[in-house]
Amino acid sequence: xxxxxxFGSQYTxxxxxxxxxxxxxxxLHPWDMTEAEIRAFNPSGIVLSGGPNSVYExxxxxxxxxxxxLGIPVLGICYGMQTMAAQLGGAxxxxxxxxxxxxxxxxxxxxxxxxxxxxxxxxVLDVWMSHGDKVSGLPEGFHVICSxxxxxxxxxxxxxxxxxxxxxxxxxxxxxxxxxMLSRFVHDICGCAREWTMPHYIDEAVAHIRExxxxxxxxxxxxxxxxxxVAAALLxxxxxxxxxxxxxxNGLLRLNEAEQVMEMFAGNLGVKVDHVDASEKFLSELAGxxxxxxxxxxxxxEFVHVFQDEAERMPNAKWLAQGTIYPDVIExxxxxxxxxxxxxSHHNVGGLPDTLHLxxxxxxxxxxxxxxxxxxxxxxxxxxxxxxxxxxGPGLGVRILGExxxxxxxxxxxxxxxxxxxxxxxxxxxxxSQAFVVFxxxxxxxxxxxxxxxxxxxxxxxxxxxxxxxxxxxxxxHALLAKVSNRIINEVRGINRVVYDVSGKPPATIEWx
Length: 513
Ligand code: XMP
Hints:
Number of domains: 3
Binding site for ATP: 223-229
Organism: Mariprofundus micogutta
Bound molecules: xanthosine-5'-monophosphate
Number of strands: 20
Strand content: 15-25%
Largest sheet: 9 strands, mixed
CATH class of the largest domain: Alpha Beta
Distance between the termini: 42 Å
Strand order of the largest sheet: 2-1-3-4-11-10-9-6-7
Radius of gyration: 26 Å
InterPro entries: Class_I_gatase-like, GATASE, GMP_synth_C, GMP_synth_GATase, GMP_synthase, GMPS_ATP_PPase_dom, NAD/GMP_synthase, Rossmann-like_a/b/a_fold
Active site: 78 (nucleophile), 169, 171
CATH topology of the largest domain: Rossmann fold
CATH architecture of the largest domain: 3-Layer(aba) Sandwich
Mean pLDDT: 92
């Protein structure tokens, strides 16, 4: 397995994903991981990531010395290369012109990392650069393995010690041969076998869960979302008889969602599911409340209440399972410097475990989202479920602007189902990252047949995004928008106007509240 030490680059998670795509297990840890922790992890190789710092700044992050003393291969990328050079006696030139974007470099052809890899004949590589500083003097024992005019030392290696470094980013797809380079490093140089495959993972995870849980009982809050669904399927495989899922209908679910979840889990997979219809309670608590954050807090609080009541009726349960995935783990372990502004409080984080006195079971905490999906399919969940767009914890509660009413939720559910239906039928569902309808508590005048109407407005929202931090509105074909609009207005009595949201994030957010 490969250890990736994170120096704060925005691409670090990509390194871990690329290594795993090469079927080698990798973990990401902060750069200041202790020597004892590194030794305990026992990696076959270490990657030092990029980062925003300059090696000559005060208190600049450095790789722990043991990294260069363990006798295992090390690959430094961007800042990782610079700190490797500085720490091993080379020189780094700072404060120079920034280089950002595509670059062509010439591989020298004699290094195991790059030998035979090229985009154009003669060892020319298209790479992605993003740096200010660069290595200007090689540490002892190193030689140059690739270069171009502006970056004469674009890569360096000391093959005897198995130290390699690249100034560009092999982990981004813009570096066309980046995958091949990382595969060289992990397979050929570190000697890792291609063992990180789904069937292999399932066997290991099942054994691990059984060992952890013993004969104790487990409860899991099943939301119908990808993560909790896959967690449920995995736990069912591992300790099915000891698992009870709690599915709370808060009155803010999509059309037929409760039925679908029950049919899939209780029906097809034979999972024990406690289906709690708390919709009246949620809606009565929400009555008269229009502030978005207040609504989120109420929904979060009610969920905890319902869950707690149900859990208390299962005195034998000793474990609370959660669908935490690896990016959540990385984020909450996160560097102290990255402190984000609270734009919205995402209620489904934390809160439950303390009050319930249950041990926490997180069977997906090692997996990236795409791996969770792959696992779900391997466990027999339908692709449509596993590749569903994300749905926020507070559900339609944040898609009905202002006060939530049952009447609004019923209209919205039907309009939303039509939109999703048409997206699927036209092949646009998979081309968008998230799409939904928003209910606007505004009435406008229309005409239907010979009569005047005075009815509600809904907005369609569809976005394309990689990470949900920034997003573009999707350029859906006008004919598709026309069809959706027609169907909603004709089929959902009470809505007479449909608009399309053409705002990006930022400055708008994906959800309207
Ligand atoms: P925004 O609206 O902040 O949304 O651009 C980014 C992503 O987060 C989802 N989202 C939520 N998910 N609880 C959740 O579990 C929430 O309160 C919440 N608010 C937004 C949103 O659907 C999008 O995918």
